[in-house]
Amino acid sequence: MIDIDQNETLVLAVVMPVYNQEDTIENVIEEWVDALSGLGAPLLLHVYNDGSTDGTGAILDRLAGTHDALRIHHKANAGHGPTILQGYRENAHAMWIFQVDSDDEVSAAHLETFWRHRHTYDFVIANRRGRQASASRKLLSGVARFLVHFLYGVGVHDVNAPYRLLRLAAFKPCFSAIPKRFFAPNLVITGYAALHDLKTLERDVPHRSRVTGDVTRSTWHIVKGSLLALGQTIAFRLHSRIP
User: Fold this and answer.
1) What is the mean pLDDT of residues 87-94?
2) The dihedral of CA 54, 209, 189, 225: what is its sign?
3) Which of 121, 160, 220, 222 is found 20 to 30 A from 200 (Cα to Cα)?
4) Residue-range domains of the chain with CATH
5) pLDDT tens for residues 120-145?
């Protein structure tokens, strides 16, 4: 991985939220460090520890001592969406941001292909193929897709995919306009790309099932969070003043 000094432009910032992934986080970080090392660009991997209560934080601190371009941010628990948004805002000085989750559901091996398209597209996003999900998750994903298409215009299929490359110059107005506690900012960001006719590419990537972390959330918990995300997305579209 190519580190940067204070006088060098940060080309790529990778934003990865983490919560209670002590069993797998070391392997995930090592996989991403290896993938990023081949890009040949000044970059930083920003890992946001969202108030983990297990050994995740200690593992991340240890890894930071072995990888020069790894930055660890320990923070109070705020949830997945607000943590992603914090990462976007704090790294808005980079030329590109890549957002990925820490659950290892999409391999870092696909990053290089996404990166090759950066000069042609403003937004490159995954379409997760073979995704295993409960009936409630599938239903709510379909509702989210319909809602984003209805509110913003038809864009990509996998509207909330946490595997996306964004050109910062195109998305800065959106990042600053989304409320700090927004539950699912990636829905609005995907909609923003469609609304403003940004150059967008959706690439199929194989999805693999999560093996650790919070995989047993109740249907009610999923529905409750999804309803909040959908309500916030509607309200934002109706009341936001972003251009």
Assistant:
1) 96
2) negative
3) 222
4) 12-239 (3.90.550.10)
5) 999 999 999 988 777 777 777 888 99
